[in-house]
Amino acid sequence: MGSGGGIGVSYELKNLPAMLPGLILCIFLGWLALQWDHTMSEYRRAYGEAKNILKPFQELGKPIPTYEEYKAKKEDAYKGAMTLFQMGIEKKKPSKPYMLQKEDYDYVATNKDIPTKFVLGERVNQFQLTYVAVLLLGGMLIRNTVGVPKIFQAGTVAARPLIKPGIIILGAYYMWSDVLKVGAIGLFLVVLFVLGTQIMISVWGRRSNVDDGLSGLMGAGVGVCGVSAAVAAAPVVNAKPRDFFYAIGTILLFGTLCLFTFPYIGKALGMSQPIFGAWCGTAILNTAQLVAAASWYGHEALLTANIINIVRVGFIPIIVMWAIYYYVIRPAKQATGEAQKLNAWQVIKEKFPIFVFGFFIMVTLNEAGFFTKDQARILGSDLLKIWFAIGFAGVGLNIAFDDLRKAGGKAFVIGFSSALLKAVLSAAVIMAIGEEVFKVKG
Predict the structure, then answer these.
(1) In a domain, 429, yes or no
(2) Residue 392 and residue 142: Cα distance in Å, rounded?
(3) For 34-70, what is each residue's pLDDT tens digit?
(4) What is the largest CA-CA distance in the chain?
(5) How many domains would you assign to the chain?
(6) Last-in-domain residue among 116, 140, 161
């Protein structure tokens, strides 16, 4: 589910001093990345405005108006739109007009050109180098060159699950109609592709004489939601440490490749944001990488991906019960002729992810009108970026090439091939279903 999900770190108060330096580092890196994102967004917006200012001159040879004329025209248009809104002719309240600063306008008017910084903002947008990309690529660069000093390591691992509070507050953006609509289709996708992948890996691994421990971990991690699912299944299948390293290596390698390729594949295929979000929610293995890729693509993609991911992580108890049946009950019955009993309710209580309840509570509060539209936007769009930025800083600083190289052998071929098949087939099915089903209106 998460990229490690804080594995190896105990979140007890006594361990806070050890985690604090790394958490502070992630907070600082997250803040820098958000500043970058804000600045580049402003430059991109200014690029579009400058282009519109130059268009009459470039295409028709018209003179560029003075700054005072430009400003007055914008203000008059806003006043006219506001009058129509107040009269009830227009239902949507107009936004205040965006205007270039005087010095930037004067540069455009004098040089008949767009400032370099605005062009940079547009290029950053074209290559999707958002705060997500900066944190992940920057973190990987640090981790795999100079390395992360030991004093920061516990805190950077502890930062990764902070993506989950972001997912919880994102619930303030949804209505239950969205959750149920997209969730129903998400359930279909999860059963068809996610749970289907786990079953396929289990059967394929058994027929290929792969150890049950490794096959069970690979099926849970690749099929459902990455590292957390593998951790949940590990005791059931009696996985050895070697099995865990191989499975996690495969999961992280595939998820990392998806993270840095899916946004560009989505653009190349012309995927809308809801379609891309549904694809991420179905095909990318870890919650952290899934959320990162969807956020990278756009906020609408994140909204759709998150609902499908919520459905997916809710299947952790189901995959544990499948592992108990396939690797414990079924062999025992074949050997002795007697079937063991499975306490399904106990498994659900122990394995169901708690943060999902937090998300549902926030959706319910929004449905009840607890949040205004502006408050929901601040929570579900702005505040969550803070949690995501800290979490993504931790994810980037913990993507080590040495960990990715731990994947290998026959189990790797089975797991990687199954994940790739799931990604290809799910993309085809989701695009065939169409974006309308996956849209979140909020």
Answers:
(1) yes
(2) 14
(3) 999 899 999 999 999 999 999 999 888 899 999 999 9
(4) 91
(5) 2
(6) 116
C-alpha triplet 357, 360, 364: angle, nearest 5°: 140
User: HEC states along the chain?
Assistant: CCCCCCCCCCCCHHHHHHHHHHHHHHHHHHHHHHHHHHHHHHHHHHHHHHHHHHHHHHHHCCCCCCHHHHHHHHHHHHHHHHHHHHCCCCCCCCCCCCCCCHHHHHHHHHHCCCCHHHHHHHHHHHCCCCHHHHHHHHHHHHHHCCCCCHHHHHHHHHHHHHHHHHHHHHHHHCCHHHHHHHHHHHHHHHHHHHHHHHHHHHHHHHHCCCCHHHHHHHHHHHHHHHHHHHHHHCCCCCCCHHHHHHHHHHHHHHHHHHHHHHHHHHHHCCCCHHHHHHHHHHHCCCHHHHHHHHHHHCHHHHHHHHHHHHHHHCCHHHHHHHHHHHHHHHHHHHHHCCCCCCCHHHHHHHHCCCHHHHHHHHHHHHHCCCCCHHHHHHHHHHHHHHHHHHHHHHHHHCCCHHHHCCCCHHHHHHHHHHHHHHHHHHHHHHHHHCHHHHCCCC
* Tens of pLDDT, residues 232-276: 777 777 767 667 667 777 777 787 888 889 999 999 999 999 999
| 65 & 191 share domain | no
Mean pLDDT of the chain: 83
Residue after which a domain boundary falls, among 83, 116, 149: 116
Report field, pTM of the whole predicted structure over 0.90: no
Classify each residue of 414-432 as buried b or exposed e, where b means 16 or more C-beta atoms within 10 Å of its C-beta: bbbebbeebbebbbebbbe
Tens digits of residue pLDDT in 216-234 = 778 777 766 666 677 677 7
Task: Give the whole-angstrom CA distance, residue 111 versus residue 89.
Answer: 41
Residues 143, 67 share a domain: no
What's the pLDDT tens digit per position in 306-351? 888 888 877 777 777 777 777 777 776 666 666 556 666 776 666 6
Look up the domain containing 394 and give its range.
13-37+127-438
| 327 within a domain of the structure (yes/no) | yes
From residue 132, alpha-carbon distances to 46, 139, 280 in Å are: 22, 11, 15
